[in-house]
Design a protein that fits this description.
The protein is of the alpha/beta class. Helix content is about 35%, strand content about 25%. It binds coenzyme A (COA).
Length: about 425
């Protein structure tokens, strides 16, 4: 089979998972200047055509610096924050405006030999961000440096409903009719929070966030971020990006991704492969246990289908899953995304049941979720008068051994199950008295 056929099939669970979701994607002015930016734009076009609701936020720091230098103006900062006086504001407007136009032009590309041919992407920018002045701090007047006061979520949602890409700049307008210079991180985080976006994707010069040894950290829980921010070795822009991610995560954005703007295809790899590409900051701690319902079938398939493909779990058709959905118990996160699943199949006329389909979403592995679910299922089983749990596994024997299961034989299985045993799979049998 051609590689692309396999690749395309492997991505289908992600395409289904992302469709109709809102992603806020933030690119710095440096990212816009990078040679790879045209690929990022093409990939954003592709995401839009897959039904993902996209809000693209751009910055313009180097572009502003260049205009200030051309005008002979010294950039002035206080506590790393730009002071935007009247002269600087002219440069800011020019730089932000021309960067926005350049992005709009790139998103409009549709030549027959370009990757965006036929996409007919609609880009909408406007006065979606209301700003207020930062004001006077430590006795210093920041003039036209502002911060986000309000995001017009209804206005943006209407455009997203119409399948447009909404482009937000690092500028906002005040109710007094003035323009204010904002940071693109401020605009992106506030937009992601206000729009209840599923993801905030921040591009950085590095592959993601690296630890003290310089190794890329693939997954971070929100609680781990403050300690990383303390690390002096952390590059300044990565620190700003990570701090923005922490802010958004704390205010309820469930997934923050930090990925490279230099690497061709990093956005697609992050969104459509299990391994990802950069750093994912996740909000742990709000997971709950519950029984599955029919609405959970697509989410369950996202977790178990790849494991079935690999032969780790026994294949179940969608119809079977729908029929047996009440056997499934789940751990779900605050956004109702399935974190882990397991099913309990009681045997008729016996005080035994089979524990099956134990699986944890890749982003949540090694955090005790499967163990929590096992404890929950044991409790449910006891309530049903079940005292023996069986499990058949090919690759996860030790996980069950370490949780009180003992090796058993086919003869220990209830007759009903013995008949159904698939000799070809040659699964090992384990039993636990509860
Ligand atoms: C096995 C699985 C359910 C564990 O999920 P989890 O939520 O990460 O589990 P927990 O956090 O409770 O336990 C993690 C521990 O199990 C270990 N573990 C994970 N998979 C294992 C395996 N195949 N064999 C032995 N130990 C394993 C981890 O190394 C970790 O060990 P540590 O605590 O010493 O670091 C998950 O790895 C998974 O989905 N695997 C694929 C599906 C599968 O094999 N299901 C079982 C067949 S029914």
């Amino acid at each position: 089979m051609a590689d692309y056929v396999k690749f395309f099939r492997d991505t289908s669970p992600y395409i289904n998972m992302h469709r109709g979701k809102t992603f806020v994607i933030a690119v710095s002015g440096d990212a816009v200047l990078d040679a790879n930016f045209s690929h990022i734009v093409h990939d954003i076009g592709l995401l839009n055509s897959l039904g993902i609701r996209i809000v693209l936020v751009h910055g313009a720091r180097p572009q502003i610096e260049e205009r200030l230098a051309r005008s002979g103006l010294e950039p002035t900062f206080h506590n790393h924050q730009r002071i935007t006086d009247e002269g600087a504001l002219v440069c800011v407007k020019e730089a932000v405006g021309s960067t926005r136009i350049a992005i709009e032009a790139m998103l409009s590309l549709g030549l027959a030999n370009s990757p965006m041919h036929g996409a007919r992407l609609r880009v909408i920018s406007g006065n979606f961000i209301t700003a207020r002045p930062v004001g006077v701090r430590d006795g210093i007047d920041f003039h036209f440096t502002g911060e986000v006061r309000k995001v017009d979520t209804r206005g943006i949602a209407r455009q997203l409903d119409d399948n447009a890409v909404v482009l937000l700049s690092s500028l906002g307008y005040s109710v007094t009719g003035e323009a204010f210079n904002l940071t693109y991180e401020n605009v992106a985080t506030e937009a992601a929070i206000a729009l209840r976006a599923e993801k905030l994707i921040l591009f950085s010069a590095d592959a993601g966030v690296c630890d003290a040894n310089g190794d890329l950290v693939r997954l971070l829980s929100l609680d781990e971020v403050p300690a990383l921010l303390e690390n002096d070795a952390l590059d300044k822009t990565t620190r700003t990006t990570l701090a923005a991610g922490l802010f958004a995560g704390k205010r309820g954005v469930p997934r923050v991704h930090i990925i490279s703007y230099c690497k061709n295809g990093a956005l697609l790899e992050e969104l459509f492969t299990r391994e990802g590409e950069g750093t994912l900051v996740l909000h742990y701690g709000q997971e709950t246990l519950r029984q599955a319902t029919l609405d959970d079938v697509p989410g369950l398939l996202d977790i178990i289908a790849p494991l079935e493909e690999k032969g780790v779990l026994v294949k179940r058709s969608r119809e079977l899953l729908e029929r047996e959905i009440s056997r499934f118990h789940l751990v779900v996160d605050a956004e109702n995304v399935i974190v882990a699943c397991a099913a309990l199949y009681p045997f008729s006329d016996e005080d035994s049941a089979e524990l099956a389909c134990v699986a944890t979403h890749d982003d949540y592995k090694n955090r005790g979720f499967a163990a929590k679910l096992l404890a929950h299922i044991e409790k449910q089983a006891l309530l049903l008068g079940i005292n023996n749990l069986f499990v058949l596994t090919t690759q996860t024997a030790h996980w069950f051994l370490e949780r009180g299961f003992s090796p058993s034989t086919l003869d220990d299985l209830p007759a009903e199950k013995k008949e159904l045993y698939n000799l070809k799979r040659n699964s090992k049998v384990f039993c636990k008295k509860i």
